Amino acid sequence: MLEIVIPPDDHLRLEHLVLDLNGTVALDGVPLPGVRERLARLQPLLTVHLVSADTQGTLAAVAEDLGAIPHRLGPGDEAEQKAALVEGLGADRVVAIGNGANDARMLERAALGVAVLGPEGLALSCLQAADVVVPDILAALDLLLFPRRLVATLRR
Fold first, then answer.
1. Cα pseudo-dihedral 42, 48, 54, 58, rounded to 10
2. How far apart are CA 76 and CA 78, in angstroms?
3. Counting beta carbons within 10 angstroms of the beta carbon of residue 127, is it exposed (0 to 12), middle (13 to 18) or buried (19 or more)?
4. pLDDT of residue 9 exceeding 90
5. From residue 78, how far is each of 11, 14, 90, 109, 126 by CA, in Å?
6. pLDDT mean across residues, the chain
7. E strands of 75-151, at which residues?
8. What is d(CA 32, CA 75) in angstroms, rounded to the nearest whole number?
9. Whether the model pTM is above 0.85
10. E strand intervals along the chain
11. Burial class (CB in 10 A: 0-12, 13-18, 19+), 15
12. Do residues 132 and 115 touch, judged by C-beta distance below 8 A?
């Protein structure tokens, strides 16, 4: 568990990290450099989930490589499927990271939603749903590895 106290009165108790695959942690189905190492450092604290419609056909292999639990989306309403995953894990214990329009609902429902401006861009709806916006996935994962950075951004 990762506990983060955000003054004056927010206390996050995070147990799950839900990551969008393509556009967030991977480009064209290949994990971005530095992701594997950071996730290895987070895994003692958080259960890592990788969610995708598997457009590139690499979800299972990438999840295994990253030590994550794969969640393949079925056809239709991907946004709601991602949000339902967050709800099923206990939204108040989830940090969700994404970049696409179909990630917005999962970011809204998660205790902490992080939008990533990655190589595929960032959908406006995802930006508006996020608690924090970062320039890339490494910065997003570093917020969890160095939570004082997150506190500095979110304290009121």
1. 50
2. 6
3. middle
4. no
5. 30, 24, 19, 15, 14
6. 96
7. 94-98, 112-116, 132-134
8. 26
9. yes
10. 2-6, 10-14, 16-20, 26-27, 30-31, 47-52, 69-72, 94-98, 112-116, 132-134
11. middle
12. yes
Instruction: Write out the two tokens for 7.
Output: 């003054």
pLDDT at 16: 98
Q: What's the rounded Cα separation, in Å, for the pair 152 and 156? A: 9
Write down the residue that tokens 């595929």 correspond to: 120
Q: Rounding to the nearest 10 degrees, give the CA dihedral for residues 105, 109, 14, 69.
A: -40
List pLDDT tens digits, range 61-109.
999 999 999 999 999 999 999 999 999 999 999 999 999 999 999 999 9
Q: Are strands 2-6 and 10-14 parallel, antiparallel or unpaired?
A: antiparallel
Q: Is the pLDDT of residue 119 over 90?
A: no
Instruction: Please state, in angstroms and rounded to a whole number, the distance separating the CA atoms of residues 154 and 156.
Output: 6
What's the gap between Cα 140 and its chain centre? Answer: 8
